[in-house]
Design brief:
alpha+beta; 6-stranded antiparallel beta sheet; 5-stranded antiparallel beta sheet; 21 helices; rod-shaped
């Protein structure tokens, strides 16, 4: 019986099935061995072996295609990530993770160049476990990564620790050893192509065992590195674009703000200019500026005293001639002293405020800008280098540049108005000064003509006026004349220099000549910078009465000098018996009432005899014994009455000066039938 050889067909079919199933190469190789054992003849066995070789080649081709497909899918996914780029770090982490997955390495990482430091640093790692490795910095030319960054070429090392092609450093080797890396592949991140390309970093894949990287693996990592470079460049471009857009938006906002500020400045300038052209006053400018800046505005003169104000600040617009109640013309000597003390306290506070404003105005002049002091903005009002005054803004602690420039421009308009006002006032005062001179030298020559001249100059001589005579040292006489013009500015008064003294004629304000004299003494002294003594007289109406008031004022001024009251202000009625002797009206009853008033009132209410007791005490030379005999009372009664007199008149009643006035008042009272 003959033996038939086995057919090759089953083995060939087996090869096709294994190839379709993606079987490994060893299973494909085992098919030829099985055919040989099965007794396939030599010719069919050669066919099976040839088919096996072809199947292995097909398998390798299919494997390469699948790998290429996987790589292309990863690259497409990466391209999709780039197209939807929102977070650069997320894209770079995805690229590094895909590099590790596709190359099948233990770790992958990406470094970027630090242009300021001149080295490279770790940006993203995947699969790394060493903190030392993750914080490595590589200088150009150091290690494999430094060489990639320096040469812009890929480098691979199957065993980095023993590879002598790279410059090893202690820090780099320590990091690589701590991470346990052996085989490393690095490719550059390039922007641009050719010799002009810029290396911005490197992409790495590394294993912890020796490994030789195939060319297709190098090419794949280069492709991923190109995507990473594009992602970084795109992110930088987008960041630059966002920055440019932000800068453009900011510039646009600045332009709009500047345009609005320019428009507002133009409108403000037109409004202030219109005020000047329409003949507006300083108060109109203050009101306009207050409306524009939404605050309260006050204007002060060169000495810091208020000229006008739009609110409660700045003294309510007072010109410094107001004084507190209680200093009426008919008060007694002690009452006048109390009034002077109260007025002095108010003037001291006002002087401190004025000094603070002058200091702030000087600071503004030095810096050529408005300054913020004590919760308010102050801007100097200048004519050249002369300080005419200051503009003060309240209620705006924060003032931006456009508003500050508007405030500073307002000071220029204010200085123009103050100069115009001063020029007009000086001109008018020279003409009015001639009228004052004629009033004082020849009041009876043509009274009606003098009154008519006064009306043409805006002065109603038939209206009651106070007449003040002010004097200071010869060296400051001219300054006193200028100070008088400034002091009367805006109040309807007039001044002139006559016989070496400044003569001021101002309308009555409801107080008295003594009060007016004290106010003028304080303000003129501040304006002139030297003590000024002022005597007041009046009220007087008509040329003759005004001339007589001047004569009384001159006598009062001389008496004040003799009494040592230089630098103050008073009228004849406030000088006690000296005023009675000097005054034209010789108000005896007023002097008696002012001196003995408390005693007369006490006697009238209680039926006592304090006035008679005081007369007997003085008549007996101050002897209690003789006085009690004169009064026919016990000496204790005299002592008790003198104690009551002491309580009513005050502790200084028995001083020589007060004693003289009391004795004169007692005699006048006796002569008048008291």
């Amino acid at each position: 019986m003959s033996h038939r050889p086995t057919s090759a067909a089953p083995h060939l079919r087996r090869l096709v099935e294994l190839l379709a199933a993606g079987a490994p190469a060893d299973e494909l190789g085992a098919v030829a061995a099985e055919a040989r054992r099965a007794g396939v003849d030599a010719r069919d066995l050669a066919e099976v072996e040839g088919a096996t070789e072809a199947a292995l080649r097909v398998r390798n081709t299919l494997r390469q295609h699948r790998r290429r497909e996987t790589e292309l899918t990863a690259l497409f996914d990466t391209a999709g990530d780039l197209a939807a780029l929102r977070d650069l770090d997320a894209v770079l982490r995805s690229i590094v993770r895909r590099a590790r997955m596709l190359l099948g390495t233990d770790t992958a990482y990406l470094t970027l160049a630090d242009e300021e430091a001149g080295d490279t640093y770790m940006r993203v790692t995947d699969g790394s476990v060493s903190e030392l490795f993750q914080n490595l910095r590589l200088q150009l030319g150091e290690g494999l990564g430094g060489l990639v960054a320096q040469t812009a070429r890929p480098y691979a090392s199957p065993d980095y620790r023993t590879d002598g092609r790279f410059l090893h450093t202690g820090s780099i080797d320590a990091g690589v050893l701590d991470e346990g890396l052996v085989a490393i592949l690095g490719v550059p991140l390039l922007l641009g192509s050719g010799s002009g390309g810029q290396v911005i970093g490197a992409l790495f894949a590394a294993d912890r065992t020796p490994r030789t990287f195939a060319p297709e693996e190098v090419a794949l990592l280069c492709s991923l590195a190109d995507h990473a470079a594009i992602a970084i460049d795109t992110a930088r471009t987008m960041a630059d674009a966002r920055l440019a857009l932000a800068e453009l938006a900011e510039a646009n906002a600045v332009i709009r703000e500047h345009s609005a500020a320019m428009q507002r400045a133009a409108e403000s300038h037109d409004r202030l200019t219109d005020l000047v052209l329409r003949g507006g006053d300083v108060s109109d400018v203050a009101a306009a500026v207050a409306g524009l800046l939404k605050g309260e505005v006050a204007v002060h003169d060169g000495a810091g005293w208020p000229l006008t104000s739009t609110g409660e600040h700045g003294g309510g617009g007072t010109d410094g001639r107001e004084h507190p109640a209680g200093a009426e013309e008919t008060t007694a000597v002690e009452g006048a002293a109390r009034a002077e003390k109260a007025a002095g306290a108010e003037e001291t506070a006002g002087a401190e405020e004025a000094a603070a404003l002058v200091a702030a105005a000087e600071s503004s002049r030095a810096t050529a800008h408005a300054v913020f002091r004590d919760g308010r903005w102050v801007c100097a009002v200048l004519a050249g280098q002369e300080l005419l005054g200051c503009l003060v803004l309240y209620g705006r602690p924060e003032l931006d540049d456009p508003d500050r420039r508007l405030f500073e421009r307002s000071s220029v308009v204010t200085s123009l108005l103050l100069l115009l006002r001063r020029s007009v006032a000086e001109t008018e005062n020279r003409v009015r000064g001639d009228l004052i001179t004629d009033l004082l030298t020849a009041p009876d020559r043509d009274p009606a003509g003098l009154v008519a001249r006064g009306r043409r100059l805006g002065i109603d001589l038939d209206r009651p006026h106070f007449l003040l005579v002010a004097r200071t040292g010869d060296a400051a006489r001219e300054r006193l004349a200028d100070a008088a013009v400034q002091y009367l500015f805006g109040c309807g008064g007039v001044s002139a220099v006559h016989e070496g003294a400044a003569v001021l004629l101002l309308p009555c304000d409801g107080t008295g000549p003594g009060t007016a004299a004290r106010a003028a003494a304080g303000q003129l002294g501040r304006l002139a910078g030297v003590p000024v003594t002022v005597a007041g007289a009046g009220p007087a109406a008509g040329p003759r009465a005004i001339a007589d008031a001047h004569a009384e004022g001159v006598r009062c001024l001389r008496a004040m000098h003799v009494l040592g009251r230089d630098g103050g202000g008073a009228c004849a009625a406030e000088l006690g018996f000296v005023g009675v002797l000097l005054g034209d009206d010789h108000d005896v009853d007023g002097f008696v009432a002012a001196t003995l008033g408390p005693l007369l009132e006490y006697d009238a209410q209680r039926g006592t005899q304090l006035v008679r007791t005081l007369r007997a005490y003085f008549g007996c030379g101050g002897s209690l014994t003789r006085a009690k005999e004169e009064l026919h009372v016990h000496v204790n009664t005299v002592v008790q009455r003198l104690d009551r007199i002491h309580a009513l008149l005050g502790p200084g009643w028995n001083t020589p000066e007060q004693t003289l006035e009391l004795q004169l008042a007692l005699r006048l009272h006796l002569l008048s039938g008291g």
